[in-house]
Amino acid sequence: MGGCVSSVDEFGDIEPIRRNHEYCDWLDWKRRFHDTINSKNLHQELSHILGPTLKEVIGPYGIEIIENFQFRESHQKLNFHILLRKLDIFFYLRRFPRNPTESITEYRDRLLPIATDFGIKYPEIAIKEKITFDLKTNHFVENLNGLVSIRNKITALKLLNMEEIIFLVNISENWEARKRRDDFLKRIEKEGFRQLRNENCCGSNHLQDRICQAKGERCWKCDGLNHFAKTCRKRYIRDCINCGINHAEGKCGAFGKECSRCEGFNHFHWKCLPAMRVHCPYCGGSHIDIARRCLAFARTCSNCQRVGHFSTMCRYKRLR
Ligand SMILES: [Zn+2]
Ligand SMILES: [Zn+2]
Ligand SMILES: [Zn+2]
Ligand SMILES: [Zn+2]
Ligand SMILES: [Zn+2]
Ligand SMILES: [Zn+2]
Question: Which one, of 74, 26, 73, lies nearest residue 54 by Cα?
Fold first, then answer.
């Protein structure tokens, strides 16, 4: 039997993994899977053949987990050993759910040493997979509608980077407070004509600084100290072109952050501007319309020796 392409029927007595499977259930499943491989003498088969076998035997829930995995190289998707290791990590990290009182950033920071102690080589990727899987289960992307303005549809959470995911989680978890602030600012904008006696701090007249009602208070608009929103001099930006939400000027959450779509800075994936280039004349593929995202970028054509396109896309006469 060794060396042949394995048949899924040979694993017939192994049940697909289930939603309530815990780490020990997974280890048990994995042991039975390995036993079958050994007893049928399949272990000589190549790992890229056993990869698809694993995907068939593991069942729909397992596939859901695997689809959320991120691979550094596309051929790793079918590698049996890499898949098993990633599943080990998935079920292990599931033992550490997020606490209700914990912010998403605190949770990420708590998982980091846990992942490192477990010997995970790329803990950031493993933690991102853990968090995106939880969010997917809660239909997170679908529920973002109306909370953030989106120019580029988020087709899969795993395409975003961790900073973008953290931003979105914070937006969706604090939407009520944000809505109250927006409504309040709209109201005081309407009342804006009313003359304030004092335009510096609390809006009312007083002689000494220490009796100011705004002393030690934070502004609801800009989060600055010692003044109220009605006297705030910061502009309030609605539907920011870089992050997609409303905030005071200078308070953009995308500032200094990297975009996962174009790898540029100061905006997020869902507000990224470059269009898609379909059937690129230089590489033949589809990618966003930025030179360095082209697969043929800086590559030399084997036909004309010019840089920036593949020989399959060469417009010059064949030299050989
Ligand atoms: Zn005052
Ligand atoms: Zn302010
Ligand atoms: Zn912004
Ligand atoms: Zn971008
Ligand atoms: Zn291209
Ligand atoms: Zn060429």
Answer: 26
Per-domain boundaries in the chain: 1-138, 151-273, 274-320
Rounded to the nearest whole angstrom, what is the distance from the C-alpha of residue 288 to the centroid of ligand 5?
Answer: 9
Closest ligand (CA of 305): 6
Q: How big is the CA angle at 270 (ends 268 and 273), to the nearest 5 degrees?
A: 80
Pairwise CA distance, residues 113 & 96, whole Å: 12
Yes or no: say if 37 and 43 are a contact pair by the CB < 8 Å rule: yes
Distance CA 205, CA 9 (A): 84
Count of CA atoms in the C-beta half-sphere (13 A) of 297: 9
List residues bridging with 237 in a β-sheet: 247
> Which residues touch 217 (CB under 8 Å, ≥6 apart)?
225, 226, 227, 228
272: CA distance to ligand 5 center in Å? 18
pTM assigned to the model: 0.86
Q: How far apart are CA 63 and CA 17, in angstroms?
A: 10
Q: Say how far apart CA 77 and CA 72 lie, in whole Å.
A: 9
Structure tokens at 318: 């064949």
Three-state SS at 297: coil
pLDDT mean values, one per 10 residues, the chain (320 residues): 54 86 95 86 73 90 95 88 95 97 97 97 96 92 91 92 97 94 90 68 82 91 91 92 96 96 95 92 92 92 94 81
